[in-house]
Amino acid sequence: MSFKIAVMGLGNIGRFAVETLEKMPDGECIGVVRRPESLGRNAISLRNVPDFGSIQDLISAQGRPDAVLVCAPSREVPGQAEELLRAGLCTVDSFDIHARMTEVVDRLGSAALEGKAVAITAAGWDPGSDSVLRALFEAMVPSGVTFTNFGRGRSMGHSVAARAIPGVADATSITIPLGGGRHSRLVYVVPEEGACMDKIRAAIAADAYFASDPLEVREVTAAELPFVADASHGVLLERVGASGLTSNQHLNFDMRINNPALTAQILVSCARAAVRLREKEAFGSYTMIDIPPVLMLPGERMSNVARLV
Amino acid sequence: MSFKIAVMGLGNIGRFAVETLEKMPDGECIGVVRRPESLGRNAISLRNVPDFGSIQDLISAQGRPDAVLVCAPSREVPGQAEELLRAGLCTVDSFDIHARMTEVVDRLGSAALEGKAVAITAAGWDPGSDSVLRALFEAMVPSGVTFTNFGRGRSMGHSVAARAIPGVADATSITIPLGGGRHSRLVYVVPEEGACMDKIRAAIAADAYFASDPLEVREVTAAELPFVADASHGVLLERVGASGLTSNQHLNFDMRINNPALTAQILVSCARAAVRLREKEAFGSYTMIDIPPVLMLPGERMSNVARLV
Fold this sequence. Notes:
2 copies of one chain form a homodimer.
Chain A lengths: L2 E6 L3 H11 L4 E7 L9 H4 L4 E2 L2 H8 L4 E4 L6 H10 L3 E4 L7 H15 L2 E3 L8 H12 L2 E8 L2 E2 L1 H8 L4 E12 L2 E10 L5 H10 L8 E5 L12 E12 L2 E13 H21 L4 E3 L14 H8 L1
Helix pairs in contact in A: 1-9, 4-5
């Protein structure tokens, strides 16, 4: 089958999602949904995909998508996804607010059951593929501690959170690993004219995204901002412990990647899984640790078993 | 619930399986099935678990196990598992003969449907957890090549295959990574009295386990054999490629482990998954890429989502 995918939002992730869908061997992007006032803008990012001011307009023109990639800022994701799910559309998102994870899984689960649809949430790299690795590592080595060491790189979630602080015109947040799963945050801020940097610093420090880590906030100009950070990122996941009664079992996962490109790719791979789960009438909400990995890959199950197992 | 697990076979993996079950927080080993002539031997390896000459004897004494860990040499696994599945018992095994994988998944699938049971096959680290990683890596970075670099360490599958060669009293096969997913095999052989080492070399070289790799066979005495290899092993899984249209995405998994201890632990974690799949009446055969990772972990789904996602 050829999967028909829609993209909601043409921000950092949405743009990469459109690119990624261009290369999807078994699917295509049938349209982008964005704010009506943005229609027609950023034609290069649209890559010849039509854009629409609402999901209803997209459906009227292109038919129903098999799945919608919800590429909004995390705080807007649950509301947008719920609405789509109730209307019977499968959704995939990279919601990343850890403290609200089970609440969002529950909410999307109810909406998905109501619409007889499937939601895959937290489908990025952390949460997402890192979550799968943490689960797999615990199944392999149940006694021990996993350290998730992020970076060095720009955190999209933290950057968006910093930009939402009053007085901030633009911002970029860099995550620096300190070892042992601890991190510091280095936030470059372009203040709005007349804004007080001390107030901005205090507001960032109080935000849930930043409250638990060492923080440094640096003021930069709008012209400097593009040169202090790019999309490079990575993670080192480490687990040392025991399998059964046997200690000294060492597991390490080290990844160096373009951040939004990987997030967009995982959204697309999970869209494949979402549609397949709906075909089995396995309606509801899932995270990546809840889905069989084979469902994310193109091709038939048995050919992937033959190739990968 | 407390999972009741039986272990079939008390070889290298079976012994570690008994140990691992001793530490399983939500289950226990209710018995070991072994050849009647072995009953009562290796009391230390049994760790106070009762042993039985047949699964029927085990069931008569202990009741039905929720799952049986089939810890036989790979070539005997499909036959043993089929019989258990037809009798309605869930099985987990670490069958590792790649060329026969889809045939065995099919065979166990038929038997499992007949017995309304669940089989998880190829549940070790390769095939097994490495298979999950290869699938996940492809979902993250669809364009590219994954190299699986084994070792340096003793391959249990290759050692068993070498021991089955006529004229071989005992043998150990060491896997040495050559880079780019290529390996050489170093086989230490204790010949039977009067056996011809040249014939043994030729027979090993012709065996399906060894036919495709550079091979060196060295003759050792029975006294020397325990000192040329232990249970240390590992793997380096490497993938470089593109997510969507974005190249230079680097994924690396590096693991250094006690080989049978990890295999036994994965069998135990998959036993948990098998019983849960049967509870959902999802009868049939599975490999590790076919199962949601969360099913392998103790505890409720939502508490693991809260902890790991």
